[in-house]
Write a structure and sequence with these properties.
The complex is a heterodimer of chains A (150) and B (142). Chain A is 28% helix and 25% strand. Chain A has four helices and six strands; from the N terminus they run E-H-E-H-E-H-E-H-E-E. Chain A has a six-stranded mixed beta sheet with strand order 3-2-4-1-5-6. The two termini of chain A are 24 Å apart. Chain B is an alpha/beta fold and 142 residues long. In chain B, 32% of the residues lie in helices and 20% in strands. In chain B, helix 3 packs across helix 4 (99-109). The two termini of chain B are 25 Å apart. The chains are: A alpha/beta (150), B alpha/beta (142).
Chain lengths: 150, 142
């Protein structure tokens, strides 16, 4: 399966963390990342977002139906993210829009099998896929791109 | 330091491993990746390449490389890091699998593993170990 971890774009400050909205720069970042994704994703994919407004607004840039998953709210454990994606059995492509350090912890666990806290920039995309080669299950990092590289 | 690991593009088969040349597809992959790198690299960087022809041809899509014998197929992580550390700033290493995948695993996760680096792909790492993965791009993703 293809698992795309997408961190929300730049957001405004707000006393209520879940209600923080994207800045105008953040909306541009989300738009660029969405355009990049739409050129590369299969025509059918699943889009799942954290309930936080900044994540939901980021996901909206893709223009496809969004499934809001409460377990992806800030502070999500790697196993919650992995479970929400249906990794590794899910056959299709799943886009998860969430937060740091949660997504970076999930990436570290999937790629390195460790409890690292990998850096993922605002609005950046990590595209992972799984495959079996020589009888071994492998996780392949297919792409890592941040808005400044798009 | 920033270290860009760049695996040679698609190459022909051949009895002499060091003499294998890029296929037409490989030449296209190398050119596409060089274009992407040029768009994102600062003006100053160092380009190092394995002496194998497929690595030399890949590097040549970007510029004239400094040939490092230590980067030939089978290079250890220590050899790759040593070759890169002789230079300041951004260093691009054009080499082979599984060597580059081992280097990425060790530098990013301090792990003894062979991460998959696809043909023609770049892994852009930033900072000393543990390095941050700044970008991963393969020709198919351009």
């Amino acid at each position: 399966m293809d698992l795309i971890l997408w961190r929300h774009a730049e957001a405004e400050e707000h006393a209520d963390d879940l209600r923080r909205r994207l800045t105008s720069k953040g909306r541009k970042q989300a738009g660029r990342a969405a355009e990049w994704l739409l050129q590369r994703l299969p025509s059918r994919f699943t889009l799942i977002s954290s309930p936080a407004v900044r994540a939901h607004q980021t996901a909206q840039a893709l223009g496809t139906p969004i499934k809001v998953e409460q377990s992806l709210a800030p502070g999500a454990a790697p196993k919650a993210i992995i479970a929400a994606a249906g990794w590794p059995e899910n056959k299709g492509a799943v886009v998860i829009v969430g937060h740091q350090p949660d997504l970076g912890r999930a990436a570290a666990q999937l790629v390195a099998g460790g409890d690292g806290r990998w850096s993922i920039k605002k609005g950046a995309i990590w595209w992972l896929s799984n495959r079996v080669r020589d009888g071994d299950a492998q996780v392949v990092v297919r792409a890592v791109v941040s808005p400044d590289l798009l | 330091m920033e270290l860009i690991l760049w695996r040679h593009a698609d190459a022909e088969n051949g009895a002499d491993d060091m003499a294998r040349r890029l296929t037409p597809k490989g030449l296209e992959q190398a050119a596409a990746m060089a274009k992407w790198l040029r768009a994102h690299l600062p003006g100053q960087y160092t380009l190092l390449a394995s002496p194998a022809v497929r690595a030399q041809q890949t590097a040549a899509a970007l510029g004239t490389p400094v040939t490092e014998r230590a980067l030939a197929p089978g290079a250890s992580v220590a050899a790759i890091v040593k070759a890169a550390q002789r230079h300041r700033g951004i260093v691009i290493v054009v080499g082979h699998m599984p060597d580059l995948g081992r280097a990425a695993a060790e530098l990013v996760a301090n792990a003894q593993a062979e991460w998959s680096v696809e043909k023609g792909a770049v892994w852009w790492l930033a900072g000393d170990a543990p390095a941050r993965i700044k970008a991963v791009v393969s020709p198919e993703m351009l």
